[in-house]
Amino acid sequence: MLEGMRLVLATSNPGKVRELKKGLAPLGWTLLSLADFPLRMPKEEGTTFLENALLKAAYVAKATGLPALADDSGLVVPALGGEPGVYSARYGGRETDRERNVYLLERMRHLKGEERKARFVAVLVLAYPDGHVEAYEGQVEGYILEAPRGEGGFGYDPLFYVPEAGKTFAEMTLEEKARYSHRGQAIKALLKAYEQGPPPREISQLE
């Protein structure tokens, strides 16, 4: 399981850092954050979650000389043509989570019932300094409510309702969210891959 391995979490989002640290705890790795390294992160110009996660992880691994794990994730609303997608963190040019939530609700004001279906997608890319990379994906289906519910989480969590749980992400504990969320699913895939130690290098997770 590479216990004691030092890994850099290639994100400055405190919510993601919190969830990744909790989810990866069983591996026994020493988790560092971007706060430990004065790096200027590259602009996210990818058109997919995988491209953006790969860009961030590879950059940090090369710059630090340590394995790096990047998360790129977002909300996909089919009735809006897939918006906000890879632009979830900067949707509509809005600056804060609250402003982006208000903007999303405005964009969806005419949508009812099944038209409010949505999914969260998370892609984790683990990049090593020697150029080897692995990717792990998770998805969760749900609905966008017409008004926010809950005080926890971050981003679109107060609007994203998971029928199976009967709650929004913002109403869940960290443990509950890990069970249901897209990021939780991606972390589980990574944990499974490293159950018996690192997966074989010849099996590329990107193919």
User: What's the Cα radius of gyration?
Assistant: 17 Å
The CATH architecture can be given as Alpha-Beta Complex
- Global geometry: globular
Number of strands: 8
Q: What's the story with the biggest beta sheet?
A: 8 strands, mixed
Give the DSSP E fraction (strand runs of 2 or more residues). 15-25%
Count of individual domains: 1
Q: What is the SS-derived class? A: alpha+beta
* Average of pLDDT: 93
CATH topology: Maf protein
Q: What helical percentage do the residues reach? A: 25-40%
Q: Can you identify the CATH class?
A: Alpha Beta
Low-pLDDT residue intervals, each spanning 5 or more residues: none
- Treating each run of at least 4 consecutive H or I residues as one helix, how many helices? 5
| Helix-strand topology string | EHEHEEHEEEEHH
Give me the oligomer status. single chain
Query: What is the first-to-last residue Cα distance?
Result: 23 Å
Cofactor: Mg(2+)
Organism: Thermus scotoductus
Binding site for Mg(2+): 72
Family: Belongs to the HAM1 NTPase family.
